[in-house]
Amino acid sequence: MELIQPQELTTGVKFARDVVEKAHTLPTSAPWRVVIFEDADRMTESASNVLLKSVEEPPSRTVFMLCAPSTHPRDILPTIVSRCRHVYVPVPSNDDVAALLVAEGGVSEHDAALAAAASVGHIGRARHLAHNIVAQQRRAQVLGLAELIYHGDLAFQEVGVLFTKIEAEVDQRLETIEASEKEKLQTAMGGGMKGKRVASLRSSLNAAEKELEATHKKRRTRQKRDALDLALVDFAGIYRDALITATGAGIGLTHPDMEGLSREIASRHPAEAIVTCIDAIMKTRELFGQNVRPVVALDSMVGRIRLALGVR
Question: Under a CB-based contact definition with an 8 Å cutoff, are residues 51 and 20 in contact?
């Protein structure tokens, strides 16, 4: 099995060519080679076209599995979709996710149920939330924004703090990984060698290091945007819960531990205003991919929510 996990904001032509090259090697430890391509929706159109030929006529004993949110043209090139068999994987229920967390151990039934609800069926995120104290603190900070909206400029200050903390956490998490990758590159390309070929090796090493640094920068950008996006998904959840309460929809809450806050929002504002708040959050998520500075987008979001709720 070949698991492909893109680390950059978008998957370009070079990455797609590397995937194709790996796919064309014969399986050595099993009868078939299965290439699982996660986040295939992040491929650029050019990268999709590079992959298209291999998907249409895959190498002998090779199977491609492209993972994407949907078969919509914004996620996957229609020409690729037309050459694939669509396998719908349903989102597991909250009860199923909670049961899995309990079965894995180290999580109480209460905490597992809360993590499952807050993660909206995403097993990996539920597992991370259930076991990681930093993730739990970050969620509490994000949900607290809904209360700070009513308190002057505190929400504006808080989104700035949130952005700074997320950036710092990503930088710290990747620092050791990047240092290890750089050391491996230097070792592979003869860093520290002496002799007549040092000059030519140094030139090649410098070029490779610059390419690696560019990759690191793109990976950091993606992880920071992904972390901010997940924070906004949490934030939207509190207004979703308020809307469910206001309309009496009778379905489960995303943040049951914050039911008091969502009920307060529902009691203070009409459903139309709450929907506008959700729209403001979704618009901000879109802005992250449009070269808008995240902190500017977050400030704008807070302003639009305050306006929708009539906060002065």
Answer: yes
In contact, 88 and 120? CB cutoff 8 Å: no
Map out the domains of the chain as residue ranges. 2-82, 94-149, 159-194+212-309
Confidence band, pLDDT 50/70/90 cuts, at residue 143: very high
Q: What CA–CA distance (Å, rounded) separates 77 from 75?
A: 7
Through-space distance between the first and last CA atoms of the chain, rounded to whole angstroms: 57
| Alpha carbon of residue 244 to chain centroid | 26
What tokens were used for 249?
């929809």
**CA 40 → CA 36, 71, 156, 214, distances in Å?**
9, 11, 35, 21
- The rounded distance, in Å, linking the Cα atoms of 18 and 220 is 21
Q: For 55-75, what is each residue's pLDDT tens digit?
A: 888 888 888 999 998 888 888
Say how many C-beta atoms besides its own lie within 10 A of residue 107's C-beta.
21
| CA neighbours closer than 13 Å in the CB half-sphere of residue 79 | 12
Instruction: Please give the angle made by the CA atoms of 38, 43 and 46, to the nearest 5 degrees.
Output: 145
Pick the CATH number of 2-82 from 1.10.260.40, 3.40.50.300, 3.40.50.620, 3.30.420.40: 3.40.50.300
Q: Is the pLDDT of residue 192 over 60?
A: no
Is the four-CA dihedral 22, 23, 26, 29 of positive or negative sign?
A: positive
Q: For residue 239, is pLDDT > 80?
A: yes
CATH number of the domain at 159-194+212-309, please?
1.20.272
Output the pLDDT for position 99: 96
Residue 46 has pLDDT above 80, yes or no: yes
The number of beta carbons lying within 10 Å of the beta carbon of residue 34 is 15
| Lowest-confidence region among 112-121, 127-136, 201-210 | 201-210
pTM: 0.82
Q: CA-to-CA distance for 52 and 64, rounded, in angstroms?
A: 11
